[in-house]
Amino acid sequence: MHSTYSLPRAARLLAAVALLAALPLQALAGLMLNPTRIVFVKNQRAAQVELINSDSTPATYRIRLVNRRMSESGEFTGVDSAGPDDRFADAMLTFSPRQVTLQPGSAQVVRVMLRKPAELAAGEYRSHLHFEKLADSGATSVEQQGAAPQQIGVVLNSLIGASIPVIVRHQTAGASVTLGALALRQAGQGTHLDFQIARSGDSSVYGDISAVFVAQGGAEQVLAKAAGVAIYTPNPLRKASLAMPAGVSLARGSVHLRYRERPEAGGAVLAEATLALP
Question: Which region is the signal sequence (predicted)?
Answer without folding.
Answer: 1-29
